[in-house]
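Q: Give me the 3D complex with DGJ.
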Amino acid sequence: MSARTTTTNFYRLDGVHDTLVLQSESARLPRLLYWGRSLPIDTDLHALAVVAQRPVPHGGLDQEEEVSLLPEPGRGFTDSPGLIVRRGEHNVYTQLHITKSTALTHGWDLECVDNVAKIKVVLGIRIEPNTGVISAGTRLTNLGDVNIQVDWLASFTLSVPEFLQYRQSIGGRWSNEFRVTTEPIGSASWVQESRVGRTSHHAFPGLLLTSACVGSEQGEVWSGQLAWSGNHRTLLQRCRLGGLQWQMGELLLPGEVVLAPEEVYVTPQAHLARSNTGLRGLSERWHGFTRAQVLPPSSRKLRRPVQFSTWEATYFDHHPVRLHALADAAAAVGAERFVLDDGWFLGRHDDRAGLGDWVPCPERYPDGLRPLAEYCRGLGMQFGLWVEPESVNANSNLYRAHPEWVLGSPELPQPLGRHQYVLNLGLPAVRAYLFESLDRLLRSAPIHFLKWDMNRDMTHAIGGDGRAGAREHVLGLYALIDQLRLAYPDLQIESCASGGARADLAILRRCDRVWVSDCNDPITRQRIQEGFLLFFPPELMGAHVGDACSHTNGRTTSIALRTLSALFGHMGIEADLLSMPESDLQFLQTALQIYKQHRTWVHQGFVAQVYHPDPHIRSIGAIANDLSKALLSIVATENTSTAVAAPLRMCGLARETMYRVRLHPHWPARPNAGKASSDFHRGACATLSGLALAEHGLQIPILEVGDCLLIELLSDV
Ligand code: DGJ
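A: Here is the predicted complex, encoded as structure tokens.
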């Protein structure tokens, strides 16, 4: 065996709590050497590299197969590649070399070139020091004089240590989004894709890889999110010679990225977070990063007004008298914003017509939207409006004038979704039309808020020239929203796509909240919201109090449960207030006052699931940043497994601090739930240290399905 004569380079990133080290041999593409708790600055990285060196087994190639940041078949990598590029009919094998490395304050740009393949790749990797969140992305340039086609370019590839044994993926469906599935990492490949042109209900572009024992406070977790609102792909693969690789990137349709000489393709950014302190530590990092680095600056300290949405109160039935009465009722219970949902524009009497014609219906709004908006302003409420700019119905003036503006080919009939097509936002003329339409509306009335909906999965994502157009559509969407925000800096925008099918870190760069799900049933919402809160902070979580009988699943619940499940998010109402019983209206009014009393600290603090051993007891805790107070909601989503459930342990408070704890009088325990109950369950205060709350926890009352409680904790100083 010949001695290896190689030069080794290290690229190190340090945050307040974490270190990441990349290692490159002989200027080849780097691979992950270390990602974990902070290493002392004088750590001998060569020694780390020596002990990390993997042996070369019999039965394979004569060299190691490296999981670099872009594993290259041209280097003999035989598992799934990190890049797939073609030039004409030729598969391009790359052997990229780092030709230039640029150290930045918190990261590196590594320029890598292959002069034979005529490809340049710049790997950008950054660390956000406070949260330790890593951002990675790749730029590929065609250095040749012939076009190349990019079929796949991972935003990142990581080799994953095998102490991470479980995968938590986030999926679901319409009206049941953000459901977490936990499975052992298997022996082959796991792939999750969205091919529907939206972030999607079924495949959230985020993943958790966890150690065997992971809980709210303990265990190791690596997590990633792709900041992209279109097609995407995540691969977790057991490599054939051992080890695991993890790739995330944009899923490119055939021919979607063709680069002429000197042209560049830039992948979406991927973000990675890790935690040694379980799921709670992980969510703290994601929430902190999203607030500080992702949200539009104007959104970061917003006071989230109680919002009333007309959707489930009126659907398409927009009668001025009823709308005014709803506005009166909304203002009377404490709403601060009135959002006019679908049904206000030309031809829109049901979901078969009208999309594309963004002018108020002349019969129902003869003087435009201003009179209603002014009426709401007179009641002390802002005015918001629902729009779905990316879609068009065949029965619309827009489609009749411009059938060529939709994605899809006129020769190829395509299935419709909710009777609509998707406009091709890759076309500048389409964007110009939409900007003009929205601009006209925003000038016509004092509109503070747009609910930006998108209700159609993309199927035939091709433009008039036959080229794939899903990617250009998403870039066009971003450009349009950015243009709008620039023109209207105070405008707030909600990202909605049939509920929660567009929640990701790219849309959140330009939106202020997410409509998490069309399901307002508070029992189903428990798990939906827990999944959402794993990644995103509570103030972005649109959460509405619906009618007693849920419109999406028919379950009937109490006003106590409906209000409690919306309390920690961006709270709103989506119910027919005109037929709500007086006692429920009063309960709602007080609940909204309590929301207003606490929203500032809850929306800047930390909100996450608190785990109870009984899976039917779901609990969410909100803790203030200074740890001086907390609120804890408890909901039984089924009858509990045992008659008396275990105490609930509340972690995350200051261990030495004494807290006065009581059941909140607005959400008390059900009287007569058992033969006897404690003073605490009857409303008495107890004073306990943060340590006792974390170690012993609070005995909870007897709960049956639908029972709910709020526990209030206040530091005793
Ligand atoms: C789907 C959204 O998720 C709903 O909240 C509502 O706005 C409808 N679209 C309106 O068509």
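A quick observation: The two ends are 71 Å apart (CA to CA).
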